[in-house]
From TrEMBL:
It holds the Pfam family Glycos_transf_1. InterPro entries: Glyco_trans_1 (IPR001296). Keywords: Glycosyltransferase, Transferase. This is Galactosyltransferase. Residues 178-337 form the Glycosyl transferase family domain. Coiled coil: none annotated. PANTHER family: GLYCOSYLTRANSFERASE.
Amino acid sequence: MYKITCIIHSLGIGGMERVMSILLNDFVQREHIEVTLLLIGRDRVVEFDLDKNIKIFRPKFTFDHTKRNWSTLKTMWFIRTNIQRIQPDCILSFGEMWNNLVLMSLKGKKNKVYISDRSQPNKNLGRLHNTLRNQLYPNASGFIAQTSQAETIAKNNNWNKNIAIIGNPIRVLDLPDVEKENLVLTVGRLIPTKNVDQLINIFSNINNQDWQLQVVGGNAKQLNLLGQYITQVKILGKTEQIKLLGQQKDVEYYLAKSKIFAFMSTSEGFPNALGEAMAAGCACIAYDCVAGPSDMIDDGENGFLIPIGNKDLFQQKLKILMQNQVLREEFSLKAKEKMKIFQADKIALEFYKTITL
């Protein structure tokens, strides 16, 4: 029996967590594979359906913020003792700061540990975690980058000599049978780096009365950007054309009926929302942020890539998409074809091969 242990802070709702759940369920279906999961964060929840044969380990103590250092040491002991008890053949750890914790916990052990950062690859983690990453990552058995840009950054920082590029699995969406409408859609948590305020202004400037902008996403990080954006739309006098819909469970419905997906995020690891929009056949336009969009969109072939901050060009290209049905349909077909390389079973197989070789 070959043993795989996966480590993550939690399996709450989120892109990184969704990817881990897909991998867990894929690994456990393979012959002669035993899968265990260590949840090491403050909230050790599981919001995804997991195969009943996956063994889940959680610390029995509550992470005490008033005794942060002591709680961290107890978490490290939990990781070390459980890995010693399980004796896995390989370990897969997700999340830059958590990877540091895992590697420190297993220092001196000979376990095969594969790590993967899941956010913007050049993200500043602060002096302590930046130093730890530079010192600890080279000791891992391998580093899994989500994009070619992430690979370049990892190489330049000498994080590891064994680097594989594996994108995120893009869900096969069960799209409702609805007619496409003249809708520009964006989807994502309402945080400043998504730049929804810029998109609202750009759409308002185009001033095409035949189109509507819809924003799907709720507040995050204890911010009330939804309220700010609603006020912004009222000031612009565009309440009939620009709809702030908040968080929605049936995102597939909005993707199915939208002709264009506009993405102005400036900080990504691998944007699942963009990938799902391409898989749904939306004509897409996105900022060429670090990292992800350039691994998905071939500029001018299956979508538009816009240099970060070039709002004038973004507005120009978005206007072209709104006016040119033939181009939209061409982008749609080619985008759906491109997303086939990110099918969940293919991505899971790449992970499996990488960590078990």
